[in-house]
From TrEMBL:
Keyword Transmembrane helix: yes
A Pfam family it matches: ATP-synt_C
Top-level taxonomy: Archaea, Candidatus Micrarchaeota, Candidatus Micrarchaeia, Candidatus Anstonellales, Candidatus Bilamarchaeaceae
Family note: Belongs to the V-ATPase proteolipid subunit family.
Keywords in alphabetical order: Ion transport, Membrane, Transmembrane, Transmembrane helix, Transport
InterPro entries: ATPase_proteolipid_c-like_dom (IPR002379), ATPase_proteolipid_csu (IPR000245), F/V-ATP_Csub_sf (IPR035921)
Any GO molecular function: proton-transporting ATPase activity, rotational mechanism
Protein name: Membrane-associated ATPase C chain
Length: 83
């Protein structure tokens, strides 16, 4: 009985960790992309030649969301989600 409870607790912790990893990374990516987007629009309005350089900075927060998704998937696979 104690082994079953320990197994459920560890699986539940991994599931919660996967949810937190995905949720917080998506939240951080959305916030930073919104902040960068506003700053980028102001910069492009003043200096249109900077548009290509700023595009790189706009894409970088998306990498954060992708890494969070990757961590969540790895935790889900550790639980046995693909079985």
């Amino acid at each position: 009985m104690a082994e079953a409870i320990a197994a459920l607790t560890s699986e539940g912790g991994l599931a919660i960790g996967a949810g937190i990893a995905m949720g917080l990374s998506a939240l951080a990516a959305a916030w930073s992309q919104g902040t960068l987007g506003a700053a980028a629009l102001g910069t492009v309005a003043e200096r249109p030649e900077m548009e290509k350089n700023i595009l790189i900075y706009i894409v970088l927060p998306e990498v954060l969301a992708v890494f969070g998704f990757l961590v969540a998937v790895l935790l889900w696979l550790k639980i046995g989600g693909a079985a």
